[in-house]
């Protein structure tokens, strides 16, 4: 469970400390890649709190899903089809679902501990 959280924090720190800037033309690809990565991190945290986390599945899913989402966005852009909105909605739904499950799990543990 700690691996997704450490990866997220390390990624944020690296991004803030790196002077690298991308051209505006790549902003859609980067945004979809970030959403896919956040979806994987939330899924990893969810698996961790449920006791089913597997680092191999997490790392492979993180890399493949992020790359696939970016490639599909690029293909849609080349074909003149705006896949960004659909991908944004899909990833957002998955992220909110995972966060909801994590929240419920944490609240269940907290209420059992406090006896309420």
State the distance separating the first and last CA atoms: 26 Å
Tell me the strand percentage band: under 5%
Task: Give the ordered list of helices and strands.
Answer: HHHH
- Overall tally of domains: 1
Mean pLDDT over the full residue set: 88
Helix content: over 70%
Q: Give the number of helices.
A: 4
Biggest sheet character:
none
Uncertain runs with pLDDT below 50, 5 residues or more?
none
**Overall outline:** elongated
Word description of this protein:
The chain has 116 residues and is mostly helical. It has one domain (2-114). Helices cover 83% and strands 0% of the residues. The protein has four helices and no strands. It has helices at 2-17, 27-50, 55-79, 84-114. Helix 1 runs antiparallel to helix 2 and helix 2 (27-50) packs antiparallel against helix 3. The longest helix is centred in the last third of the chain and has 31 residues, at 84-114. 17% of the residues are buried. The model has no long low-confidence stretch (mean pLDDT 88).
